[in-house]
Amino acid sequence: MSAQTTETARGAVLEARDVAVHFGGVKAVDGLTIRLTEGRIFGIMGPNGSGKSTLLGAITRLTPLTRGTLVFDGAEFHDAPPSQVARMRIARTFQTVRLLPHLTVRQNIQLGADARQDAGSALPWARRPRRTDTSEAVDTAIRRTGLDDVADLRPQELSYGTQRRVEIARALAMDPRLLLLDEPTAGMNQKERAEISRLLRELRAEGLTQLLVEHDVQMMVDTCDHVFAMNFGVLIAEGPPAEVVRDPRVQEAYLGKKWRDHA
Ligand SMILES: Nc1ncnc2c1ncn2[C@@H]1O[C@H](COP(=O)(O)OP(=O)(O)OP(=O)(O)O)[C@@H](O)[C@H]1O
């Protein structure tokens, strides 16, 4: 990996410059430039297939870039392996629940803390360093997400909304510098969505930078400081959410008449 520092990245936690991810002829992301500054909540909105999840995959290095530059804390990392991303403390939740059913809530969250430790060795074949005690990080993540009462239950004993909170707790157990959330409120009712929005805003107050992929426009407006709107892999608008949802290009691409009338 190149550890070149760049002047233009100063003040940004993450920059993606002219990032493209093509799958054969499908240009899932096609020349996207975004800048995430410290301690703010950024949103990505866009219709199905516009490239939102692919962008998160590119940032976590699970999906190879076709071209472009990724910079985290001033260091380029677009050539780094995914294990390096965990070491940089970039954590992610997925679009669908990915909890291990035979483990308790606490054990699932423990996996997040372990992921960071496992990333500690630059040589995967080398003997692992002795583990430090991560129980405090796990306890903090459980408390932070209000899961104390269900910590010893298994995922199938929980509501869907609570399972999604466990996923956020697992990501928090990594003690992230940047948290990527892929539709964390999908399938939730209004009350559960409001709870997640409140949690994300509390995490922001503690300084955590977040990038949230979300279809729920109200959730975006209530939660995000700055929103990027994508369509066909390119950025069509960005700015404060209340402005972006009124942008004619965004309304045309994504929101439809209903929101236009509402707005
Ligand atoms: N591994 C892959 N191989 C081929 N095409 C892919 C792959 N992953 C994504 N795509 C395509 O890339 C485009 C962008 O998909 P992506 O999942 O990033 O969109 P999205 O905005 O996250 O959509 P959604 O809101 O439905 O989750 C789509 O056309 C999709 O079919």
TrEMBL record:
Keyword ATP-binding: yes
Stored Pfam families: ABC_tran, BCA_ABC_TP_C
Molecular-function GO terms, alphabetical: ATP binding
Taxonomic superkingdom: Bacteria
Record domain ABC transporter: where: 14-257
UniProt signal peptide: none
InterPro entries: AAA+_ATPase, ABC_AA/LPS_Transport, ABC_transporter-like_ATP-bd, BCA_ABC_TP_C, P-loop_NTPase
Keyword Transferase in annotation: no
Keyword annotations of the record: ATP-binding, Nucleotide-binding, Transport
PANTHER family: CONSERVED COMPONENT OF ABC TRANSPORTER FOR NATURAL AMINO ACIDS-RELATED (PTHR45772)
Name of the protein in its database record: ABC transporter ATP-binding protein
Organism this protein belongs to: Thermobifida alba
